[in-house]
Amino acid sequence: MLVDWFKLIVDLETKGISLRHQSEAARVSPATVHYWKCGGEPKYSNGQMLIDLYTTQISTNVPFQSTLKSR
Q1: Domain range spanning residue 19?
Q2: Number of domains into which the chain is organized
Q3: Tens-digit pLDDT profile for residues 3-60
Q4: 3 state DSSP class of 3
Q5: How many other C-beta atoms lie within 10 A of the C-beta of residue 26?
Q6: Cross-strand pairs, 64
Q7: Which residue has the higher pLDDT, 55 or 69?
Q8: Would you state the pLDDT for residue 61?
Q9: Do the domain assignments include residue 33?
Q10: Do the domain assignments include residue 46?
Q11: Which residues contact 36 (CB under 8 A, 6 or more apart)?
């Protein structure tokens, strides 16, 4: 199963956690978080840091994609 990065990032934004704050939590630039929101995939360690932020601020249920993306 793949994490739904778009939903995860939008949920954080809806909760009031800016892309800048998310980028600081994941130790990347805001442009990188925006790239993930638009369909990019983070490196494992950066993605895990963003998931950690999500699970502490939103829910322990991380959103997953319902179908696999075609490449």
Answers
A1: 5-57
A2: 1
A3: 999 999 999 999 999 999 999 999 999 999 999 999 999 999 999 999 999 999 999 9
A4: strand
A5: 22
A6: 3
A7: 55
A8: 94
A9: yes
A10: yes
A11: 5, 9, 42, 47, 50
